[in-house]
UniProtKB/TrEMBL annotation:
The keyword Cell membrane does not apply. It comes from the Bacteria. This is Urease accessory protein UreF. InterPro entries: UreF, UreF_sf. The keyword Chaperone applies. The lineage of its organism: Bacteria, Pseudomonadati, Pseudomonadota, Alphaproteobacteria, Hyphomicrobiales. It holds the Pfam family UreF. One of its GO terms (molecular function) is nickel cation binding. Keywords: Chaperone, Nickel insertion.
Amino acid sequence: MTTIITTATPMLMTTNDRGQDGIASEAEESAALFRLMTWLSPSFPVGSFSYSSGIEWAIEAGDITDRQTLQDWLAAMLLEGAGFCDGLFLCHAWRAAEAGEGLVLGEIAELAAAFTPSRERHLETTAQGRAFVEIARSAWNCDTLDLLASHVTGPITYPVAVGVLAAGHRIALSSTLHAFLHAATSNWISAGVRLIPLGQTDSQHVLAALE
């Protein structure tokens, strides 16, 4: 069995689809940005608005009560919680897919699904992953999605799905990772704004503080 090594600071790679000077063309960069904005938009139909990644429970328990406690909670999620783990699995899935390593990708997908600590969290990430893959195969199909389908029979988590699709479209890992974490953080903040509740200005203060 392949051992997957994780580090606190993932190496940020770029695709090798570059010109002779090592710089992607403006058209390539624009296309990559457009696709990331589309895939990770709140309007992309994966149902992200239906989930809060445990924030609803934290508010009910009194752990999150205002802007500062929401900010502290989300910072912990990014540094050592769901955001950190999702980022690592996205990176490893991107690298395995980009290298065409189907067996490794299958092990990463299995580990990512097993890493969800609760039934609710498992449902959240696998439901979004399934929806993301279904839409991607219909509109943006690529070889890496075929690789994923041929080596993964169990549930697919959301970050693994995003990493595999981005690799298939030769979108830089660094751009993919930052876009994914920004979208996740924005969704968490939106949940906090609705449930605490907070004002829109407070939400932007939290987002700015988490940059």
